[in-house]
Amino acid sequence: VSLLFHTAWENAEVWRAALRDALDGEAVEPLEGGGEADVAVVWNAPPRAFAAVPRLKLVCSLGAGVDHLLSLSPVLPGDIRFSRLVDPVMAERMALHVLAVVLRRHRNLDLFERQQRDRHWRRLFHDDAADTTVAVLGQGSLGRPVAAALAAAGFKVVGWARSPRTDLSWPVYSGMDGLHEAVAGAAFVVAVLPLTAETRSILSAPLFAMMRPGAYLVNVGRGEQMVARDLLDALDAGRLSGAALDAFESEPLPPESPLWSRREILITPHVASLSNPATGARAIAAEICRFRSEGILRNEVFCDRQY
Amino acid sequence: VSLLFHTAWENAEVWRAALRDALDGEAVEPLEGGGEADVAVVWNAPPRAFAAVPRLKLVCSLGAGVDHLLSLSPVLPGDIRFSRLVDPVMAERMALHVLAVVLRRHRNLDLFERQQRDRHWRRLFHDDAADTTVAVLGQGSLGRPVAAALAAAGFKVVGWARSPRTDLSWPVYSGMDGLHEAVAGAAFVVAVLPLTAETRSILSAPLFAMMRPGAYLVNVGRGEQMVARDLLDALDAGRLSGAALDAFESEPLPPESPLWSRREILITPHVASLSNPATGARAIAAEICRFRSEGILRNEVFCDRQY
């Protein structure tokens, strides 16, 4: 057996070796070469690359996001199944990234850096975390750990999800009606959403109008969820005080993007939840083994619900 | 009865009102005016201001640091007692400040900001928190919550204290012999120390030489604990990768200080553990009432051990 593989990531070779190790030495070949493989492990693979893989049965994502898999589904045979990467290490990484960018703003580190450039010493005060609400949009395998980490740090947390849920220790609002309630009192709105028809462009003027004046936006989901023009307008109007953005409609973010030069915006190059080759390859290998031996997927992606 | 009060803080009037409220309307008068008061609540009061307060019995600190009280003791009558401010809100604030500056470096937010200025998109990788050791020097009423918050975020924590202690869920090294063991494997060394004869200038070349090459220093204690020249040399030599400094020998940090312009250094204007007038005044009022009614201090400062 062999496995096909595609990613443009800098650490592609590390992943390749980790997958080979996790699969007891199975050959890991480039997707572009085609072949008799039953499984492909990919990130942003071009649809045409699948043309010469007649026996393909499963496509695994190298990351938690799966919109890149869903965009393949119309051009692949209908019986091919899809799996996302679920790795507790990625959830921890995502949670600490969000904690890092929220605390940076909450504790004025961004403003102190500006003062430092001017050699200016001025104390700035801050609310206590217990008096600061953070709304976490998305309560999936990454959104829940994000909310839990913020709550553990002392913030008041509210969640928002597609469907109601009452099994968490923070309130979760649901549906488009619940969105206003979720964000209205929040100093921070953190989006950890899958990209679906409902969440595309959700971070735009209507949502910003529901947010508290001066609130801060964090997007660690997908760039297509945010309307950059609306964000810039909201910043100009003082509706939002700033944003920390990790995902963009076009990546790398083009040099001509007006987002780069806004000092209220922190741009990180899609690193909030880097997948870890060692633990990630083991999780993917376990999913492949379950699939090959029993036809079972634990982290299946469903095209109808879009995640 | 009346209370004497001195601070140069911007929010002095807020504190004054909060103390009056917490003490059922007791008059809060400027220390400089002298008078028959038994208690003074101060931050950095000049010793000569106490000349006209003959009945003084207790001096309370407006913050957790008490070196400013100890420097008064040689010039005040020997029976005057001293009390520090212990407020759980301050401990939480300190813990979140340290978490904020550690996560900023750990998750490369400082480097991503530099890349952003150049419109440069490049992923940078990071160790997992579980593989990253943070050494917390000082295990007092602020050091312990700092260590607990870092441990809760997933970091490996080791502590260092003057005396051995085994009641904490992380290892604590003690004595000058234990210092090397505490810091040798740490990616971050966080100093939350009282200023004493032993800790004065402790953050200097000998300690930096014990640290792992490329380690990061956080000082939220006192400026007198750090030898700025040694820090700059250690940065130039690449021994340390950077530092987040909240306290300085002279505050405000003078505009001519070479620390301002080092991009590996983050300067915050002594805000890590801002005292909270509402909760702080209640804690101080409770201490004053205990002292007046029973002669008992819960948070007494002892001149012999210097904290």
Q: Mind explaining what this structure looks like?
A:
The first copy, chain A, is built from nine helices and twelve strands. By secondary structure, chain A is an alpha/beta fold. In chain A, the strands form two sheets. A seven-stranded parallel sheet of chain A has the order 8-7-6-9-10-11-12. In chain A, α5 links the parallel β6 and β7. The longest helix of chain A has 19 residues, at 88-106. At the A-B interface, α3 and α4 of A face α3 and α4 of B.
Chart the SSEs and their pairings.
The structure is a homodimer of 307-residue chains.
Chain A: E1 2-6, H1 12-22, E2 27-30, E3 39-42, E4 58-61, H2 67-70, E5 81-83, H3 88-106, H4 109-117, E6 133-137, H5 143-152, E7 156-161, E8 172-174, H6 175-183, E9 188-191, H7 205-210, E10 215-219, H8 228-236, E11 240-245, E12 265-267, H9 277-294
Question: What descriptive keywords fit this protein?
Answer:
homodimer, elongated, 17% strand, 307 residues
- The pLDDT mean of chain A sits at 95
Give the topology string of chain A: H per helix, E per strand. Answer: EHEEEHEHHEHEEHEHEHEEH
Order the strands across the largest sheet of chain A as they lie in space.
Answer: 8-7-6-9-10-11-12
Helix content of chain A: 25-40%
The biggest sheet of chain A amounts to: 7 strands, parallel
Sum up the overall morphology of chain A in one term: elongated
E-strand count of chain A: 12
Q: How many DSSP H or I helices of chain A?
A: 9
Binned strand content of chain A? 15-25%
Largest interface, and how many residues on either side?
Answer: A-B, 50 and 49 residues
Question: From the helix content, strand content and strand pairing of chain A, which structural class follows?
Answer: alpha/beta
